Amino acid sequence: MSDAHPHVTALLARFVLETKIGAIPENVRREGIRGLVNIIGCALGGSHHHAVNKAWAALQPFAGREQVTLIGRPQRTDALTAAFINTLSSSINAFDDTHAEAIVHPSGPIMAAVLAVAEIEPVTGVEALAAFMLGVEAVCRISKAISVAPASCDIAWSQTGVTCGIGAALAAARLMQLDLGSARMAAGIAAAGASGIRALHGSMCTAALPAFAGQSGLRAALLARDGFTATQSVIEARYGLAQCFAQTPHLAYLVDGLGTHWEILANTYKPFPCGIVIHPSIEAALEIAQELNAEAAAVARVHIVANPAAMALCYRRHPRDEMEGHVSLYHWVAAALARGKAGIPEGTDQAISDPAIGALRDRIDVTSDPVVPHDGADVTVRLTNGASAVRRVRACIGSRGRPMTNAELDRKFVAAAQGVLSRCKIDAYLASIRGVETLGDARVLTGGALTA
Prior knowledge:
By secondary structure, the protein is an alpha+beta fold. It has helices spanning 8-18, 26-46, 50-59, 79-91, 107-120, 125-147, 159-175, 180-192, 205-225, 241-245, 252-255, 279-292, 308-313, 322-325, 329-339, 349-352, 355-361, 406-417, 423-434, 448-451; strands at 68-69, 76-77, 98-99, 267-268, 299-306, 364-368, 377-383, 388-393. It folds into 2 domains: 8-269 and 415-451, 2-methylcitrate dehydratase PrpD; 276-393, CATH 3.30.1330.120. The chain has 20 helices and 8 strands. The strands form 3 sheets. The chain has a 4-stranded mixed beta sheet. A two-stranded antiparallel sheet has the order 1-2. The radius of gyration is 21 Å and the shape is globular.
């Protein structure tokens, strides 16, 4: 393995450090801006979630000096605590982005690390955007190298916790203007904290995995800047990251087409706040709900044919709370049929405990079929009066085949920010992110002046 690709850590680090913003194609830069709109919107929407409040209450007594803004909140705190809280806010509603192949959620940890550096170092908007895009690119490539065929890995590893710390470290290293050796050290230090145990899904730790990665990546870059050491070839080394986390790694994904083929273009954005493998079934259920216009009690039976990943990751029939609800195919289809909607309110504890939704979950049957694509599902609903409806979804909204439009992303941002900011401030914040390449000071991206 290491003989075939002996220098991938160095090549990837050099790519992140040295790629000029002018060398990044316009369509990639547009996607980077779309990614920022999505993930900062997610952070706003999750900024006052009870899990984020719990985390802040636990950490605030031990926080350092007020360096970095907490997105959507009036407080400022030290850079490492802010990286954790801002990533947690972006992931807590399970509304963050997902790479279409690697099923990794890269943007939250990279965004948090980049914006933390931008508040302690002079950084322009265009440089922040470049670091964000290149960090996301690194995460997606590392995740593919250990999980996407011909690579293979144990599904027990959650890619976001395993790989995002390295991407965040390299993005921060770029903004700190570290040399190549130090950046490779930062990657190695971040890899020391790589972990993503999937058994934690269904708890607050689902969202904490990316938060740990964002904080770990920033900490790694800070340590490397002051000479802390690690293995410089941590990805490809014997007993390195690839060998530890993959049964069969494919390191070519890390370096093939660097600068010409962009994995960030395969990053997707969620229209529904839950596991992405559920989305095709939700879309079908929403269409059927609109067609039949029936009460939940009138639904006699629901049958879903889905890709095996949907049940492997989201098998819970009766989730105990909101966190388990994020990964429950049964709940989200039942909620979509019962309420005709699938937004954040449909995933709350109140919705989880709704008797009508709970009873409907018991009337749902799911069949796994590998012929059904990851972005597809077949849903049949039969009513007690004999009426029925069928929907076959292929390339659901938010998938690579049907990406969310800019207008849809803007509406998602506005909806997430409502209750956090006034509409005037929401519009100003969104305009700043959309105009990131013109910003002389990237601190604007944290929204501190708007939320203070």
